[in-house]
Design goal:
Rossmann fold; eight-stranded mixed β-sheet; four-stranded antiparallel β-sheet; 31% helix; binds iron/sulfur cluster
Length: 327
Amino acid sequence: MAKEKLVQIRDLSVTYQTRIGTVSAVDHMSFDIYKGEILGLVGESGCGKSTFGKALLRMIDPPGEISSGEIIFDNENIMEYDDKQMRDFRGRRASMIFQDPMTSLNPVQRIDEHLIETIQVHEPHTEREPALQRSKQMIERLGIGEDRLISYPHQLSGGMRQRVMTGIGLILNADLIIADEATTSLDVIVEAKLADQLREIREEFGVSLLMITHNIALVAEMADRIAVMYAGHLIEIGDIYDVFENPKHPYTQGLLASVPNIRFDTEEQLYKMPGEPPNLTHPPTGCRFHPRCPHAMPICSQREPSLLEIEEGWMVHCWLYQEQPNE
Ligand code: SF4
């Protein structure tokens, strides 16, 4: 059965104006997010993955801006929405869970007030009592007792706060949840529990989940597809099993080789990627990975490759998989 597209990102770029020049944080990214899928977006710190997540909700603050592109969400280009439409869009259609929920939850507001307010802002005709009932059902669904509704955020554990944030994201039946390092500050047991719940929620609500993380193991466990970013570029995207089994892009190969696994032999050295990510005010010409790439060819520093489909649904941004132009 053909997968249905929820979001079509086309040529999306985000730039920041700084005193030392223009930072090209997200550079002409194009790909789709399907309905009901879990897509893991990975890459080193500073590669632009969080910026990309914020851009999807048009939450880039000055001096940053979305400098090009379209975001087609369920057949509508949200880049054309005015501020009021965007406020309604955030929450009702798509929402974001951040690493530290304390930055999103109001410390002097009880949990029930957060949930009721979310409902009533988007559905002003909903009375308080039905909104409260929905809030109770939602947090119970997320494994939190209803007695916790009268707690303040600081009275909950980190894992509970993340589940509350997830509940706020889901209470209006959003179609897309963007989880930006949402499990990073949790211990491994709480992280595994939250990951299980996110998977169940996907099944139950049919929501799409964009999981932005540096935790490759978590992506391997949860995601249907993986997208890899390097220095503001999408460099590989494909089915999770295909990419883990046989990564194509040299950066993806290095990234996966640098993750320890349960069968890791302690005598064996983990792969260490040479060099450092580039300065995005002056990114390398051509392929931005060329100064670190063990397979770099002359063309790599001269011209940027395209993101090309090498097999159905599997796209790679590398000259190793495309014909070089005759000049
Ligand atoms: Fe390496 Fe060239 Fe491919 Fe870039 S385009 S990843 S430098 S082989």
